[in-house]
Amino acid sequence: MTHRKSSKTDIALRIAMAMKQMGIDGLPRNYELVYEAYAGSNPDLVRDFIALGKYKSQAALDELGRKYLPHQHEASVLQRSAGALSSEMSNFMHLLSQERSSLNDYGRLIGEASQVIRDAGRLGEGALGSSLEALQRATEQRVNHAAEMAEKVAAQTAAMESIQKEMVEFEATKFIDPPTRLGNRRAFNKALARVYANPQMPLLCGVAIAEVDAERRFSPGQIEALSDHLVTFYGGLIRQAFPAQDLAVRFDGLRFGFLFNTADEGEVTRLVDLLRAAFQAVPLRDPRTGRNLGNLTLSTGVCMTDRADSALDLSSACERALAEAKAAGGDQIVVYGRGDEVPAGKEWMLYKAS
């Protein structure tokens, strides 16, 4: 655990130093953008970040952030959508005002025609005919105006639906990992927050953190060369094999998180084993030559929510179990739990699931 913390601290220092060297302001949104670029989990982001050149303006960074990290720019997106929606509502209110004015004019003509009809004997046939002609013309204009109004209302409705769709799509992108189309860490954190919405009665479910055992087959150089392909290949494999009713996310690199909507520990380990079986059944192929590179395995740490008091404790328990699985050689599940024989106040026990 000490090594893990120190590693994270080193990364933070490297990112901060890189930002200083490039003259990038120490804003949270800039830090996340630089971190994601250095992590290399999104090749498109890395390419576009490098293309900005050695010295990057804040405007260019924000444009990149809006594309790849939209949650950091929620305010501007929501303001733009709110402004567009306000404009469309103003247009709609103007249409309604025009319609009310048109109806008032038409009502006035009907009233005048009614009066002429009542006074027909006194005013004569000429006045009656002129009034009826005026009413007929007004009726035809009213019919045409109603058709135009219907078209304008349909256009306004479509414009407002488009704005609403944009906002829904924007909301969805905040929780998606682009390379794999799985959820991202933010989606995972949001799900864990819901689990512990009532700390006294957390939802009963199982959580797992897993990592592909790439280092068991490939050298660090090979992993780096294949990193993009490994991420998309195993991300797609997980997306296909994972139950739709549960949550699967990618953290970074080849690390994934899972939330199983069941309180049955045996069912959780069974589902993880099915995922491991999918890894064993589908061979990895070289993206350039198509050559069979064999099968990679999966190490997984599991913890049930009734064994942790908070989202942080739950994640930490899964991380400890994963570290145990990796230290034991990988390709296995380790479940973090409390045995009945453990005295009160002692650490939870780690035990391997076969």
Strand proportion, as a percent range, falls in 5-15%
C-alpha-based Rg, rounded? 32 Å
Number of strands: 8
- Separation, N- and C-terminal Cα atoms: 25 Å
The average pLDDT is 78
Walkthrough of the structure:
- With about 350 residues, this protein is α+β, with helices and mostly antiparallel strands.
- Helix content is about 60%, strand content about 10%.
- It contains eleven helices and eight strands.
- The strands form two sheets. It has a six-stranded mixed sheet, with helices on both faces. A two-stranded antiparallel sheet has the order 1-2.
- It starts with a helix and ends with a strand.
Topology:
Elements: H1 2-21, H2 28-39, H3 43-51, H4 58-68, H5 74-118, H6 120-123, H7 125-173, E1 176-177, E2 182-183, H8 185-195, E3 206-212, H9 220-241, E4 247-252, E5 255-260, H10 265-281, E6 298-304, H11 311-327, E7 333-337, E8 349-353
Parallel strand pairs: 6-7
Antiparallel strand pairs: 1-2, 3-5, 3-6, 4-5, 7-8
